[in-house]
């Protein structure tokens, strides 16, 4: 889901950079001096875990593959602001060190995976956990990545390189990631549940979040 | 929290990350077998945009490999290096934001 250089028109790159910079700046401002002590290293631990998980490409028979993105997990375990910054660190290193995602598209990639996926995942979990925690975790992972993919579909769909094929790009991204996102939802549910049940002391889960 | 404390408290998690990196070549091989293509690439292919893809920055580990080295073995090295860099950057961010 990492958009490379050349896929987006420059004005879209600029707009996405600005939006992402504003959210990153706001997140940092919200967190400044407010992290609990265990949260300080946890930003790096979660980022490293997501980086490692993203290296596992799931082969899907039929000629496609996808990898875990992890924005919802970051948002749920760290809170949306720290989760966003954790994902930003992953995406930035992937771009600069591994050439995964273009430097011109970094703003868009951050928006899709470090903002939409993180914040949507967190909000869904927060809104639905009172009804059923497992379902809320699953939906957070699934819908978070699905909307992130649709955002990517919109960004490339309004680009001249894609012949302004918005309907096609949104359909392809939405349908495929809607299906592949089920795996993301299951992993999100299992991973967060494991942490909450087995290692509750390791993660400073917000007070309202309990098993 | 210093690096030593992080290692002492999170060693189990770091071992899990190490295992994930060690098995990553298997997943890479599997993706190759089915014909690696993400939905984004499928959309680009469908609309003839693939030829416009380029990379301004390829990075020192392009495509998570070391140029010229065995792709599967170098994926492990790239993964370890990447994890350490991301972990370090995350720790720096956490430290810079500061505790309560």
Give the helix level of chain A as a range of percent. 55-70%
Cα-atom radius of gyration of chain A: 17 Å
* Sheet with the most strands, sense and barrel status of chain A: 2 strands, antiparallel
**Integer-rounded radius of gyration of chain B:** 18 Å
Q: How many strands of chain A? A: 2
Query: Which runs of chain A of at least 5 residues are low in confidence (pLDDT < 50)?
Result: 207-211
Secondary-structure content class of chain A? mainly alpha
Structural class of chain B: mainly alpha
Order of helices and strands of chain B: HHH
How many DSSP E strands of chain B?
0
Report on the biggest sheet of chain B: none
What's the arrangement of strands in the largest beta sheet of chain A? 1-2
Q: How large a portion of the residues of chain A is in β-strands, by DSSP E?
A: under 5%
Beta-strand portion of chain B reads under 5%
Distance between the termini of chain B: 13 Å
Number of helices of chain B: 3
Mean pLDDT of chain B: 86
Largest interface, counted by CB within 8 Å of the partner chain's CB = A-B, 75 and 67 residues
State the gist of this model.
Chain A is mostly helical. Chain A has helices at about 10-30, 40-55, 70-80, 80-100, 105-130, 135-155, 165-200; strands at about 55-60, 65. Chain A has seven helices and two strands.
Overall description:
- The complex is a heterodimer of chains A (211) and B (100).
- Chain A is 69% helix and 4% strand.
- Chain A has 7 helices and 2 strands, in the order H-H-E-E-H-H-H-H-H.
- In chain A, strands 1-2 form a two-stranded antiparallel sheet.
- In chain A, strand 1 and strand 2 (64-67) form a beta hairpin.
- The longest helix of chain A is centred in the C-terminal third of the chain and has 33 residues, at 166-198.
- By secondary structure, chain B is mainly α.
- Chain B has helices at 3-34, 39-46, 71-97.
- At the A-B interface, helix 2, strand 1, strand 2, helix 4 and helix 6 of A face helix 1, helix 2 and helix 3 of B.
